[in-house]
């Protein structure tokens, strides 16, 4: 499977600011996903990022709050905008291996908002 | 009702015990079934992967799928403290489908 890496691995941010999380895969993949995971909780899908088209957002998540870029088949970014303490969470990037249907994950970005 | 329901746990067992982790699902179109293991402060990593019904064994781990009952299980034999983690089941329809559908996870603690 391809190696997937995220950065930053963690950050502490001030309320009202924005943070962009980067996700890099070491080979080309079609589908990439962004998840949120509260500590001790399950995965919540934010959006699916396909190269060459706009991201598809899940119910409860909007582009203005979580803009996503997918400039090529190996890279994606998620921005958490105008952050509030409720946005404190772990944000995970994932890609889907087309031949096996398996999703693989990065180690996540641990975000705390003061 | 969720598409995938996972036994919630948490589960605490002594070292050497046999562990059974279970999920049920409602969508009969699911064909690919996965188990992920997630250690604290890490992303989920794929542990087992099964296509359609049947059993698959990998060392101390056995994944079992019963499509007629819409039920999947992960068995861990001779459990070790290093098995302490959260286990997530996941499933998807086919190679052209989008995202996988995940269970909520079961946290396992194996006590020495």
Give an overview in words.
The complex is a heterodimer of chains A (114) and B (112). Chain A is an all-beta fold and 114 residues long. Chain A is built from no helices and 11 strands. Chain A has strands at 4-7, 10-13, 19-25, 31-37, 43-50, 56-57, 68-72, 75-80, 89-96, 103-105, 109-113. In chain A, the strands form 2 sheets. In chain A, strands 2, 4, 5, 6, 9, 10 and 11 form a 7-stranded mixed sheet that branches. A 4-stranded antiparallel sheet of chain A has the order 1-3-8-7, with no helix packed on it. Chain A is globular and about 40 Å long. The relative contact order of chain A is 0.34. The model of chain A has no long low-confidence stretch (mean pLDDT 93). By secondary structure, chain B is mainly beta. Chain B has no helices and 11 strands. Chain B has strands at 4-6, 11-14, 19-25, 32-38, 45-51, 54-58, 61-66, 71-76, 85-92, 101-102, 106-111. In chain B, strand 7 (61-66) and strand 8 form a beta hairpin. Chain B is globular, with a radius of gyration of 13 Å. The model of chain B has no long low-confidence stretch (mean pLDDT 93). The A-B interface holds A 1, 31, 33, 40-43, 45, 48, 92, 96, 98-108, 110 and B 32, 34, 36, 41-46, 49, 88, 90, 92, 94-95, 97-100, 102-105, 107.
